[in-house]
Amino acid sequence: MRSHEALIFTKRKKTWLSSSIQHCYPEVFPEHQRDIIDIDNSMRAVRFLIEFSMHQPSAEFILSNDSIEELLAICYHIISFGTKKDIMRSSLWEIKIDELASGRLGIVEESESYGKFVKAKQVSLFEFYERSYKDEYEDMSPNSEHDKELNKALSVEYGINCIDIEDILYHLLEVSDAHSSNVICMKRALLKDDLQKSGISCDKISAFLNMFVLEQRKTWDAIPNGFKRSEIEPWHHKRRLSMAFKPIISQQDVLVIGVKSLFQAYLYLLTGIQNGRLKEDIFKSSEMKAYTERVTKDLSNKFVDEVKKKLIELCPGLIVRKEVTINKNGDIDIAEDLGLGDIDVLAYDNNQNIVHAIECKRINFGRTPTEIRNERKRFIKDSRNQLSWISKHRARHRWMNSNKEAIRVFLKLSDSEFSIQSYVVVSEDIALKYIESTDLPIATLDELTTMLQSYSELV
Length: 459
Description:
Blueprint: H1 2-24, H2 29-53, H3 65-90, E1 96-99, E2 105-109, H4 112-123, H5 125-137, H6 145-158, H7 162-178, E3 183-187, H8 188-197, H9 202-212, E4 213-214, E5 248-251, E6 254-258, H10 259-274, H11 286-314, E7 319-327, E8 332-333, E9 342-349, E10 354-361, H12 369-379, H13 389-402, H14 404-411, E11 419-426, H15 432-435, E12 442-444, H16 445-458
Parallel strand pairs: 4-5, 7-8, 10-11, 11-12
Antiparallel strand pairs: 1-2, 3-6, 5-6, 7-9, 9-10
Helix pairs in contact: 1-2, 1-5, 2-3, 6-11, 11-16
């Protein structure tokens, strides 16, 4: 646990220095980026070692530092091999296994396309660091009317809200400071007594512990009711049976608390809810499910507004409309509803005589093979007998090409000829762009604006 606490501090320090290093010492910034990636990998390995070894042991050993380092290396390889297994199972890309120069079997070739995606993400890694810094250090305490809803939803889901959680967190920080250690080891009963003496009620203490304590099990793979196998496999994200969600480790009647790990887990929960990465499938209560669904919808609407605003700023002469419905009695009125839905952003460029039909998708990019596979399903290969996002937009594109007069009337255009170009614009770059070809382009907002600027320069 002390190693994990130290890694959190080291990563934060590296994050603080990112801006200065990028601007003052750009020649060493790539190495600085690699250092942070190595720290992230080390943190995952440490968390898995704790999660694996915390359960009731069949024997006790006193391990040397060298043995612990060896175990961490094994944990890192387990995570790596688990990721490769999911890649092959999901048929995302080919992994070639052959004899290495050492005589052992190993991976000799992976997807070049996915490598391009990784490099593209590394270009924007600095922006990710800045966003991470804001996520970790901004005041995330609910204070607006919107966030009061979050407190209500948290109370139903966990039996405790942000105000009570933070009271306990800062009390534990005081205990940590008093003992000059970031790691607190305390019997559960003594911790409860200490928190009660500070004025926190018994039910709030119990709710806090239920929320953040990773309870000891008979074995690592003894999965409690209501959980899935993937929630103990360390190469997956959003695992409820992980230190990311439950950073307090139970060892019989003793609780091991890393204060930095606890604060990080709390902020992981809050930011995951507020940025839409933690969705309704993570939670149990209807109130929290409804809240996260509203958050996702609000973020999607804001992204549509952002795309519209960007287009107007880029080309003030554009005719831009948003959320244009194509159905009976819709914005574009047709005789019968064909299930075409709406066009998020419809823009006409008078200089180029092009109508741009833009489907906007505010997403959190897939980080693991499972998330990338789900991304692929949503975009192009929906297995739930529903149309994928690109299939739906393709249907709209084809209808528009066959019904240009309806588009002309709606946008009040002249009788001149025009073409229609359709895109799917995403809020973040995604691996799918690099590993699958699509008939309709998938582009980030920056890529779209660059494309439109190039059109303008041709005039």
